[in-house]
Design brief:
By secondary structure, the protein is α/β, with parallel strands linked by helices. The protein is built from 8 helices and 7 strands, in the order E-E-H-E-H-H-H-E-H-E-H-E-E-H-H. It folds into 2 domains: 139 residues, Rossmann fold (3-Layer(aba) Sandwich); 38 residues, no CATH class. 41% of the residues lie in helices and 16% in strands. The strands form 3 sheets. A 3-stranded parallel sheet has the order 3-4-5, covered by helices on one side. Helix 2 packs across helix 3. It is globular and about 50 Å long. The model has no long low-confidence stretch (mean pLDDT 89).
């Protein structure tokens, strides 16, 4: 709903005191779906140029951003290869890259570490932590709760479509418990 792919049954969504459907708001959000889709015949560089054009980013600025992003997500050596030859992990990295082209204030990621090898997971987690440190708000959806615990300051637990718990991790989770243990305990107590 935040990115406008579905509409709320009632009420409205406001971001930066504006409707989430306004162009100004959409240009400040980066989104990576669980299974990003690409034009397989394009190279990563060509695809990111396409995304940059959608955001009306000037050519010289787009060139600098794309080069930096490809390096940041570890695709600089494969930037000119057709996406159809990419592994699942490489496509995940490209999915993150396309969400970063517009230098978003809010980054919405659905299972961003899925399909990455251990080194790739570590690299992307480090990159996300750097983004967080620089002021980017990151909304992360993941079934790997250790990743959530490592990256996020606040959590929300959704069960059967309802937000049942929300708050700062260090406040919500009791001492001596990790997020996964707390999640399982919380869900089981609702049965």
């Amino acid at each position: 709903m935040i990115v406008g792919l579905t509409s709320p049954d009632s009420g409205t969504i406001s971001i930066f005191n504006q409707s989430n459907t306004s162009l100004e708001v959409r240009q400040r959000i980066g989104f990576m779906p669980e299974n990003p889709a690409f034009y397989a015949y394009l190279s990563a560089q060509e695809f990111l140029w396409f995304v940059a054009r959608l955001f009306h980013i000037e050519k010289h600025e787009a060139k600098a951003r794309i080069s930096k992003i490809l390096k940041s997500v570890g695709l600089d050596q494969a930037a000119d290869r057709a996406i159809r030859g990419y592994s699942k992990g490489m496509k995940q990295r490209l999915g993150l890259a396309q969400a970063l082209v517009n230098q978003p204030d809010i980054l919405i990621l659905d299972e961003p570490l899925d399909g990455l090898d251990p080194l790739g997971r570590s690299d992307i987690k480090d990159y996300l932590l750097e983004m967080k440190k620089s002021g980017t708000t990151i909304l992360l959806s993941s079934h790997i709760l250790s990743d959530v615990e490592e990256i996020c300051d606040r959590i929300g637990i959704i069960h059967r479509g309802t937000l049942i718990e929300e708050g700062a991790i260090d406040v919500v989770i009791p001492k001596g418990m990790n997020l996964e243990e707390y999640f399982v305990k919380t869900i089981k107590s609702r049965k």
